[in-house]
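Why does residue order matter? Because the sequence determines the fold. Keep that principle in mind as you read this record.
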Amino acid sequence: MSDTVDAVVLDIEGTTSATGFVVDVLYPYARERFGALLAERAGEPAVARALAQVRAELGEPDAGPARIEQTLNAWLDEDRKATPLKTLQGVLWAEGFARGELVSHFFGDVVPALRRWRAEGVRLYVYSSGSVAAQRAWFGHSPEGDLRELVTGWYDTENAGPKQEPGSFRAIAADTGIAPDRLLFLSDRGSELDAARAAGWRVVGVRRPGEPYYEEGSRGHVRAGTFEDIEVVGSGA
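Structure:
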């Protein structure tokens, strides 16, 4: 398929990168370090904000570190896209990437396509349930080096909103200053594609065998097996 657009907005898990890497490598990395983070760094602004959000969601304003750690681990087990969980994961992952303990994963067809699209004048954005800190660390520590210069902007559930709500996509369009029909969203999850389409965006469902939402099908959206199947042309605007 081919689209003339001003920007491509990328999901990460299942789209640019294997969900299995996140679940099997990054989730355990964070789980092992939540306790120390809560015990030793609760006063740091990002950590303190996340802890307040957990307590608010629990309805337990006096919840202590043990209760919060238990909650974070339960949310991990559920693969819940809770903003404070993603914030705290992002803090830990960013540090792990910076120390060289973690290196991110990209499918082989992704990085060449991103470089090609940027050369065409297409802007690239990331919209993931993972925090902006985690996104930047992910792109900054890839097997092919630092890819952050390819990305114009970063969106998560805190600065844009939930990925299954059209209002979040309207907020991103407003923030970028790009008309919705000039934005192309790539994701493996049908409900996210539905939300973007409802907001007036163009969408492509990325269907990679073995990924969690592969059997869901395209739900009526244009689909592609790899980024090589997607021809994106800059509008020159």
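The longest helix spans residues 83-98.
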